[in-house]
Amino acid sequence: MTGATGYIGSAVATTLLSRDHQVLGLARSARSEATLRDRGIEPARGDFGDPAMLGAVVTASEPDVVVSAASVGASAGDNATTFARDRDAVRASQRALHRPEQGLVFTSGQRPRLRRRRSDWAIARRVEPLSADSVAHVDLAAALDDLSAT
Predict the structure, then answer these.
(1) CB-hemisphere CA count at 13 Å for 67?
(2) In the chain, what is the straight-line distance between the N-terminal and C-terminal CA atoms, in Å?
(3) Are 71 and 107 in contact (CB under 8 A)?
(4) pTM (two decimals)
(5) Among 26, 106, 111, 138, which has the minimal tally of Cβ within 10 Å of its Cβ?
(6) What are the Cα distances from residue 147, in Å, to 6, 66, 102?
(7) What pLDDT is recorded for position 56?
(8) Long-range contacts, stretch 43-52, CB < 8 angstroms, 24+ apart
């Protein structure tokens, strides 16, 4: 998972650990590795801002699911350049998934702006495709609510 020490990522990681999932977290530094270990997360050295490195970590770790909860914009300021770098990182993760049963969950702190009635949004299970290449935007709060209900 990317962003496992961040606001969204730490909540997701805690939930996954509480449900007995093994969580591997991307860490840019020895300090981040120690933080992840202290939280029960296995660290993997890598950088979300380096798509080639990120793809190599995903390939080597053979995850069932990649949860992308990081953003270059979180540390560099949100703008068109950081959004493009975030997109490139998510696409690198997606390309590194080789088995048909592997999945990718992309999270964002930005709520999608859709012109739908609330009931339609619920029926859509809070997933809105971003492009033809299978990346999806998930309303994380609702996804966690769904997860908690199971």
Answers:
(1) 23
(2) 22
(3) no
(4) 0.70
(5) 111
(6) 20, 16, 18
(7) 97
(8) 48/2, 48/3, 48/72, 48/89, 49/85, 49/89, 51/88, 51/89, 51/91, 51/92, 52/92
Domain segments of the chain as ranges: 7-149
**What's the pLDDT tens digit per position in 8-57?**
888 888 888 888 889 999 999 999 999 999 999 999 999 999 999 999 99
* Residue carrying structure tokens 């998972």: 1
Place of tokens 């709520």: 111
Confidence of residue 125 (pLDDT cuts 50, 70, 90): very low
Report the Cα 113 to chain-centroid distance in Å: 20
Q: What tokens appear for 49 in the block?
A: 């801002």
Q: What is residue 118's three-state secondary structure?
A: helix
* Token duo for residue 39: 């939280």
Q: What is the mean pLDDT of the chain?
A: 75
Helix%, strand%, coil% for the chain, nearest 5: 45, 15, 40
Structure tokens at 2: 């990317």
What CA–CA distance (Å, rounded) separates 126 from 145? 11
Joined tokens for residue 74? 């979180």
SS3 27: strand
